[in-house]
Amino acid sequence: MFLCRQKNINLRSNQEIVLKKSMGLFRTLRSNIFLFLLGFLFSFNLYGQVEEGEKLFKQNCASCHLMSSARLVGPGLEGVTDKYEKEWLISWIRNSQALIASGDERAIEVFEAYNKSVMTSFDFSDDEFTALLDYLANPPVKEEIASNNAQNSVEQGMSFSTKMMIIALILATIVFLLVSIKNSLKTALGKETETIPQTLFSQYQLFVSNNINVLFVGAVFVIVSLKFVFDLLMGVGVTTNYMPEQPIAFSHKIHAGINGVDCNYCHTSARHSKHSSIPSADLCMNCHTYINEGSVSGKKEIAKIYDAIGFDPETRTYIEGYEQKPIKWVRIHNLPDHAYFNHSQHVVAGGLECQDCHGPVEEMDVLYQHAELTMGWCIDCHRETEVKMEGNNYYTHLHEQLKEKYKGQPITVDKMGGIECGKCHY
Ligand code: HEC
Ligand code: HEC
Ligand code: HEC
Ligand code: HEC
Ligand code: HEC
Ligand code: HEC
User: Fold this and answer.
1) How much distance in Å is there from the Cα of 349 to the middle of ligand 5?
2) Residue of 44, 50, 175, 271 with fewest CB within 10 Å of its CB?
3) One domain for residues 79 and 181
């Protein structure tokens, strides 16, 4: 009895100890989780700021600066926040010329090292400066371009037919396993076994002996063939995904994506005119006078720019009397002559992003046609997209009339006349 009670007490205290221990554990766990959440929220906040800074950098600085040690138009900005204190950086970015004029030694030194080229002045708010400097202090880890490429090709390599093949293989394995199981069961019962072809054939005979089955398969076959022919006919002249090989392996992912060069830096005329031009080799040379080697293609592709323009990368001089050869870029997007399309109308007046029509260009190593470029594609968007009224000085008078006519209703492009034949056809 005593022993029993003793045991009982022991048992209880044991339970208590376990309970206490687990409560303790729970408490530390709870405070840890709390700390973790706090840290998470904080890092999230910081992340948001770095992201804002990244945006500012890409929009304002990336056309002249890289976030590495390599020079572009200006010096690479890696580690620049260690080199200079915050106040100096802010006054430099606000107005580098004023700082130079004030006799600041370090400012004069950089200025002279860079052939006295003038950096643009920027009038940012305090918050924007904080975000920008945070970004300069914590730049993203440099992407592994080569491994990224490998990953891309794996993703693209899994085409529809590959997936179908894999599914077919899995199904075949299942059939094989089931037949094997069936056969081993039959052997266990002492019955006669069938080989796989025999099983398949007997199943087939069972299937076709039923008329409804045959009718069903026939109907599916006819529908699939009709759909195929229909798609083929509708697809005449539609060149979605057209991706020709270009004379130089130019990558939008490296330029517009990883290095954040703005689309308008190269395709300047998209904002001013009907066409968006392809940049000339002179523009490439703004950066490639210094950058003569790429991390993917080495010197091979960039050498083609020098060959077109007559530049000697060893001496960094242009060859005199060189007969320049234009780079023959293969045109990708092409509307028929009877259709009229204007870039500045869409980008400036319409306020659309290039990506709305051209897709994720900044992720493309090789550029391809993203949209269908059919009449239906133009018209669908005109039916869905509201006209941007603010800051649009093109049609102020028309907009007033439209607001009057469609009181309170959303005004889409079609209401402005965007689906009249004459607007798009000469
Ligand atoms: C039009 C080209 C251009 C743009 C745009 C530009 N810079 Fe510069 N930057 C330069 C040049 C060139 C220099 C070298 C000094 C000089 O010649 O004035 C420089 C120098 C600097 C330096 C001094 C670096 C050092 O190592 O001494 C900093 C910091 C800097 N820029 C930051 C920025 C930031 C931040 C932005 C964007 C807000 C920016 N720059 C935008 C051209 C540019
Ligand atoms: C460094 C210069 C540069 C930048 C920055 C750049 N592009 Fe390009 N773009 C080119 C060159 C060169 C070509 C022609 C070669 C090719 O098609 O890849 C081109 C071709 C194109 C084409 C296909 C034109 C055709 O033949 O139909 C489109 C569309 C395009 N760019 C959109 C963009 C967009 C959108 C951005 C911004 C996200 C951008 N580009 C940024 C240089 C640039
Ligand atoms: C604003 C600066 C800038 C301009 C303008 C520019 N590039 Fe580049 N280019 C770069 C940078 C930065 C790299 C990346 C080097 C690397 O791979 O690290 C690069 C890399 C390349 C590469 C090699 C890619 C690789 O990694 O193998 C080619 C080819 C190239 N550029 C072609 C062009 C052509 C053609 C033009 C003109 C249409 C052009 N670039 C205009 C900055 C520029
Ligand atoms: C509303 C859709 C739309 C938007 C937005 C748009 N594009 Fe285009 N883009 C087109 C169409 C359509 C074509 C084919 C034009 C043709 O063949 O006449 C084209 C062609 C091009 C071409 C080939 C040269 C030419 O003009 O024919 C380039 C380069 C280009 N776009 C770049 C850009 C850039 C850069 C932006 C952003 C500043 C942009 N596009 C915004 C629809 C668009
Ligand atoms: C992503 C949406 C989008 C696509 C795709 C698009 N558009 Fe537009 N389009 C607009 C917007 C938005 C406007 C209104 C611009 C403005 O406010 O002036 C517009 C305006 C126009 C206008 C002027 C209409 C008027 O009444 O003055 C024409 C012409 C036009 N687009 C032609 C085309 C053609 C041709 C295509 C196809 C090749 C096309 N658009 C594809 C969005 C689009
Ligand atoms: C928003 C612009 C737009 C409007 C509005 C428009 N079209 Fe088109 N249309 C196009 C474009 C772009 C193409 C070229 C499509 C292609 O190449 O696949 C085209 C092609 C055509 C074609 C040639 C057949 C074809 O599909 O290629 C005919 C015919 C045509 N349009 C008639 C009309 C008529 C009639 C109207 C008025 C009811 C009209 N379009 C209104 C943009 C427009």
Assistant:
1) 10
2) 44
3) no
